[in-house]
Design a protein that fits this description.
Length: 670
Amino acid sequence: MAVATQTLEELCINSIRFLAIDAVEKAKSGHPGLPMGAAPMAFVLWDKFMRMNPKNPKWFNRDRFVLSAGHGSMLQYALLHLAGYDSVTIEGIKQFRQWGSETPGHPENFETAGVEVTTGPLGQGIANAVGLAMAEAHLAAKFNKPDATIVDHYTYVILGDGCNMEGISGEACSFAGHLGLGKLIALYDDNHISIDGSTDVAFTEDVSKRFEAYGWHVLHVEDGNNDLAAIESAIAEAKKVTDKPSMIKVTTTIGYGSPNKANTAGVHGAALGGDEIELTRNNLNWQYPPFELPPDAVNHMRKAVERGATAEAEWNQALAEYTAKYPQEAAEFARFVSGKLPDGWDKVLPTYTPADKALPTRKHSETCLNKLAQVLPELIGGSADLTHSNLTEIKGFGDFQKGQYANRNVHFGVREHGMGAICNGMALHGSGLIPYGATFLIFTDYMRAAIRLSALSLAGSIWVMTHDSIGQGEDGPTHQPIETLASLRAIPNLTVIRPADGTETSGAYKVAIESSKAGNPTLLAFSRQNLPNLAGSSIEGVTKGGYILVDSQGTPDIILIGTGSEVSLCVTAAEKLTAEGKKVRVVSMPSTDLFDAQDAAYRESVLPKAVTKRVSVEAACSFGWHKYIGTEGVAVSIDRFGASAPGNICLEKFGFSVENVFATAKTLLG
């Protein structure tokens, strides 16, 4: 068959395939098989259904597309280029996977306009998509009126076998089914191949039945290689089902068109090679050299630009009419989308004095959340089945449930990893929402990939973690974090804050809210046990990460550095040392991340190099503290697993007492 006899649809689909083939071959790295097999479903989705504006990728009411199987990133880059997005040029495709290119190995939202979320670790994308769909449902319920609709878009996902094998997809899809998210439509690229070969070696369950059990509407396109009409019909049918999400299993052939490598693991994660590419070109009657595209295909796909401009213009008109009818709601909507905080929002954050009652910082966190919820309607979130331990309920704002999407308390269930990725999806929706997810600090181990991706993808999620040390008590070592804080502090672009009292908790939330709007995540670590409110603690001090809480007259002989529940131990130990004639400075260090971000002059003013005798006190491992205490300093820490006993007994037995801090400092002073 000559090129001229190919249908327009075939030209478009093969354009997608060969952009992927050629880019991977030039890079000598990548995954051509998925784009080759999934090109038909992707073409139908983008050509017939996706509402987008390539010339304004951030247009609010666009449909969101997520390639959960992010290893097939060239599928998305080909679609973006063909649809007319300026972010992916043909030169950029030629630089696939190269230093500084607009086409990284896996889709990255911060690198390539048109990419909504950062995918690659399998299952994260479908879970992000649940968050995107939740954000749409929440905003539609909040802002839409019976006679005026301004929030109305779909979230589409392409996921693969690997996504369905990963546990996070089960967590998120179970939750999506419970919530009945009717504007979430997932296309499952059912190609039966993973890196190890046929999925039969490890994965033989009936995925459709699983999704039916989750409460999804399930369809099957048996010939995803050729039956474009069936793909179109399935998506259209899915859109008609408004009370549950839809999963369309599309059975395809990985590496479709390759005579020798199709339907094998060999096409999953490696370039086809020159000889096989030539055979594939012949097999698919593709007579164009590498990176050259048929004008008819490009012209057809670029109609997305005109359609997008029209769709956005129509939406702008609808928004103008909405604004005229509902000016107050329109103003709030505009603020949401702008990402701006209301004036004076932080004035609701309380401060405390030593006369105020000693409370756990998790209780102060509850106070902050509830005060902030009154002035920040964009604040939404909840706990992974620990609401009354994490104290994360915002009272009076109802539970986010099926048909009650305007409410703001989300009950994620025991799904920490899914919760993390869902929060990231909400944060990246582009609507100004501030999502928070909560559990015990130790269970960040169950959601670390999502926390890491919040930092990588600039998702302003807030992680509310309680029971932050061996002070957690009787649940014992399985629930007592030891190395957790150090490992979280090691994640770039994640701000970890462990406040010492009520005022510092307010400071932590000030940082977290502002960081969320800037697209940066924050992890807050709160105590289970009561802590006294300290003289001199401050919101401003928290914003600097570390600050002088108690100072001496003249240059100190020794500096005690504490975080969280251990700061009060340092204060009392300092009083005893001062009574013996020692000059002692106490530094509260709620966030090493924020402290390290200060200029050298400020850091020197708090921790002068001339004062080499230093003691750090934190009920966690010592890893990382020698950066602040130097070679002559001592870390009062715990470098073994904890024990099952009341929290106060654990702290005492492991040396977190005034007496031990005092004795350690005395020994260091000689």
